[in-house]
Amino acid sequence: MLVRVDFLNMGVSGRWLFFFLHRSPTHLVSVLIFNTTSHCFVLVKQFRPAVYMCEWEKAKTQPPKSAEKTEEGSTSQWLPASAGVTYELCAGLVDKPNLSLEEIARQEVLEECGYDVPASKLKKITSYRSGVGVTGAKQTMFYAEVSDDNCVSPGGGEPKEGELIEVVKVPLHEAMTFAYDERIPKTMGVIFSFIWFHNNMSPKYKISTNV
Amino acid sequence: MLVRVDFLNMGVSGRWLFFFLHRSPTHLVSVLIFNTTSHCFVLVKQFRPAVYMCEWEKAKTQPPKSAEKTEEGSTSQWLPASAGVTYELCAGLVDKPNLSLEEIARQEVLEECGYDVPASKLKKITSYRSGVGVTGAKQTMFYAEVSDDNCVSPGGGEPKEGELIEVVKVPLHEAMTFAYDERIPKTMGVIFSFIWFHNNMSPKYKISTNV
After folding, report:
1. For a tag site, which of A137, A191, B52, B59 has the least CB within 10 Å?
2. Where are the domains positioned within chain B?
3. Structure ipTM
C-alpha cells in the first residue's frame, strides 16, 4: 500500500511517501510484573532478529575477533544467537478492538509469563510514543502485582505466532544494578519501570539504591 | 538487499528473511539538556510522519468527528499536522565512525538546539535497545548541562536533511507534571531522563515532586 502525506509544518510544506509492506501496530501495551511472593520482577527474554542484525552490521566493520567455532569445528563469521537476545517487559499488540487495554495486557501476562490475574489488578503507569522514527506507535505501560498463587503455566508465548520467550526473574534487591548494567541488553521500558517502582512503590517494598 | 538469518534458539531452529529498503541506523545518541541559567530542560518538538500515520489509522476507525475545516473552508478528513508532533530528547544517528559518541552528541546539541558545549561536558546516563521489534538499534543517552552563554544559534536542525525541529524549554518545576501528562505526546526517553534527573541531580537542583 502506498500512502501519500502532504504537510505544512512551521511554514514549510512537504510530502512524504510511505510504502507499507504490512500494517504496523498503532498501539502496544507493556506490563511491569512484580511477584509479591518471591519479591522478583518478571521479565521476558527473547531473541530479536532486528537486534541481531544490528550486531551483525557492527561486527562486519570490526576485526574478525568475533568469529566463533561452530559445532562442526569450522570457523563461522556468524555471531552467536545470544547477540540478538534482549530483556524486555511483557508486552503485546493492541489488536482486539473489543477488548480494553487492561484486558489485552492481562492476556499477555498469561500467555507470556503464565500468571492469571484479573484485569482490574492492572494499574496504568503512563503512555508514550515508541519508535517515533519508524512505527510511531502509542505504548501504554501497566503495573501488575502477582503472587505464586497466580502462576498457572510456565508462560513462554505462543510458538505458533513465532514467539520464543523465556521468563526471567530479577530479584528486587538486584533491580537497580540490573537496570544500569549496560552489559545486559534491555529496553528503556525495563529501566524506566524499575525506577518508577523504586520511586513509587518504595514505601511498600524496600529496594536497594546503592547504584 | 535480502538477508537470510538461520537461528537455533532454546532448541528451536528457524529462519528469518529481511528485506532492507535502506540501511537502518544501528546506533543512536540522545541528550538530556539542562540549562543552568533558566533552570529549564531543552527538548525538541518535531513532526513525525510515522506518528501522524498511526493517528490517521486510528481516526479511520472512529466516527468522523476528527474532520476539520481547511483554510479553503471545505471539510477535510485529514488530521491536523499537530497529531503527528512529539516532544523528544535532542538525538541523532551515529553515522561518523571517526567521532566518539560524545562528539556526535555534541554536534546534535549544536545543530538541533543551538548550544555549543565541549564533548567533555557530556555525561553518559546509560545505554539500551530501542525499537527491538523493528530496528533494534543501540541507543546511548547523555546528560549535558548548558548555560545561556553556550547558546550560539536558535538551533532547529538541518533543513537540508529534512529536519523541522522546534526547540522547546520545559521549566524544572514543571518537569514531573510534563513527564506524566499523557496529553503531551512524548518519547520514553523524555520521561525516563526527567526522572533520572530527579533521582540523581536533586541534591544539586530542586525539582517539584508533587505528582
Report:
1. B59
2. 27-56+80-205
3. 0.83
